[in-house]
Design brief:
Blueprint lengths: L2 H16 L13 E2 L2 E7 L9 E2 L8 E3 L4 E6 L4 E7 L6 H4 L8 H4 L2 E7 L4 E6 L3 E5 L7 E4 L1 E2 L2 E2 L3 E6 L6 E5 L9 H6 L5 E6 L6 E8 L2 E6 L5 E6 L4 E6 L4 E7 L2 E8 L5 E8 L2 H6 L3 H14 L1 H12 L4 E5 L5 E6 L10 E7 L2 E6 L4 E7 L4
Parallel strand pairs: 1-24
Antiparallel strand pairs: 2-27, 3-4, 4-5, 5-6, 7-8, 8-9, 9-10, 11-12, 13-14, 14-15, 15-16, 17-18, 18-19, 19-20, 21-22, 22-23, 23-24, 25-26, 26-27
Helix pairs in contact: 1-6, 6-7
Pfam family, one: SSL_N
Organism: Canna indica (Indian-shot)
InterPro entries: 6-blade_b-propeller_TolB-like, Strictosidine_synth_cons-reg
Length: 373
């Protein structure tokens, strides 16, 4: 066997080890276990309901999916309807139903969603098109901020809205990598991510934090005095004080955090894509191994291989409800015997149920809590 083939095989084995798997998992999350009953809401054609949002009337949820559409759940009809899209009208036939990451830069990929409930505007963090807005009655999202200081956003991701001022806090996960390269962003140790604030009155974008390692979900406190920010690569939750800019680490998690959402019972729900096993943690701490994985991954299609491994591992859903200080109040680790809802991206608690998103699955989950506090 040639040296080149041996190198490729070694790289493949290493990639399997450092992909988001549950091999050599870290210890279980502490906290009270959540008990409930899971219901799945299948999507129409596309996949990946990454984030959810409810409007001021309580209708929804609304969610963005892989083909650039934003869908709305109609409980009375037990199905999804088209609400809007982030792509332009002439691309409807090209994009609808797409699950192909290679089309994302054309069709868009809506990630974080949140309503300005006073005005009825739905803000969308699209991974490729930047910060966008869908006004009441609009069928297509309009860009409101595509970059700052003349430089386009590369990977717009999570967002939350200060209902008092209307300001939108959002993340740009990397200056180097786009969403379809997210595995490379993590393996490379990229630390070019930013937290920003969009002033809806002036249209100004202010950079609040730089040098972050894959900043992802963001959630404001009830009085907007601080926010919690997920840093995916480091598996940390950061606390940023908005009035007197100050940053601290409040939690080190056992998995890769995605979106963060405030809970009506207090604290914040943090969804985790998968566990950060000890083997994964070690591999990502070795600079030469990171470089090797990126080199080999460029030949083997790192993103496709990682997704394949994820699909076979069938990891359980993982989320925690944290206090403002980062203490684990409650833990969600799987849905009992149900193994079909996994690799979750967001947990939105509403009326005794957890609405559970996933960037990979072809459905949204609703977990009806047996005994919500």
């Amino acid at each position: 066997m040639s040296t080149a083939k041996l190198v490729l095989i070694a790289g493949a084995v290493a990639l399997l080890s450092v992909s988001f798997s549950y091999l050599n998992s870290s210890p279980s999350t502490a906290g009270n276990d959540v008990g409930g009953e899971l219901r799945l809401l299948p999507l129409d054609g596309a996949v990946g309901p990454e984030s959810v949002a409810f409007d001021a009337s309580g209708e929804g949820p609304y969610t963005g999916v892989s083909d650039g559409r934003i869908l709305k759940w109609k409980e009375d009809e037990q199905g999804w309807i088209h609400h809007a899209s982030v792509y332009s009208p002439e691309l409807a036939n090209t994009c609808k139903g797409s699950r192909d990451p290679k089309k994302e830069h054309v069709c868009g990929r809506p990630l974080g969603l949140q309503f300005n409930k006073k005005k009825g505007d739905l803000y969308v963090a699209d991974a490729y098109f930047g910060l966008m807005k869908v006004g009441p009655g609009d069928e297509f999202a309009a860009p409101v901020a595509a970059g700052t200081h003349g430089v386009p956003f590369r990977f717009t991701n999570g967002l939350d809205i200060d209902e008092g001022s209307g300001a939108v806090y959002f993340t740009d996960s990397s200056k180097r990598f786009q969403r379809r390269e997210f595995t490379s962003a993590i393996i490379s140790g990229d630390a070019t991510g930013r937290l920003m604030r969009f002033d809806a009155d002036t249209g100004e974008v202010q950079v609040l934090l730089e040098g972050l390692s894959f900043p992802n979900g963001v959630a404001l406190s009830g009085d907007a005095s601080f926010l919690l920010l997920a840093e995916t690569t480091t598996c940390r939750i950061l606390k940023y004080w908005t009035q007197t800019p100050r940053l601290e680490v409040v939690a080190q998690l056992p998995g890769f955090p995605d979106n963060v959402r405030r809970s009506p019972r207090g604290g914040f729900w943090v969804a985790m894509h998968s566990r950060n096993g000890r083997l994964v943690e070690w591999a990502l701490s070795v600079p030469w191994l990171r470089r090797f994985l990126l080199l080999v991954g460029s030949r083997l299609n790192l993103q496709k291989l990682s997704s394949s491994v994820l699909g076979r591992r069938r990891g359980a859903a993982l989320a925690v409800r944290l206090s403002e200080e980062g203490e684990v109040l409650e833990a969600l680790e799987g849905f009992g015997e149900r193994k079909d809802m996994r690799f979750i991206s967001e947990v939105e608690e509403r009326n005794g149920s957890l609405w559970v998103g996933s960037v990979l699955m072809p459905f949204l989950g609703v977990y009806h809590l047996h005994h919500p506090d």
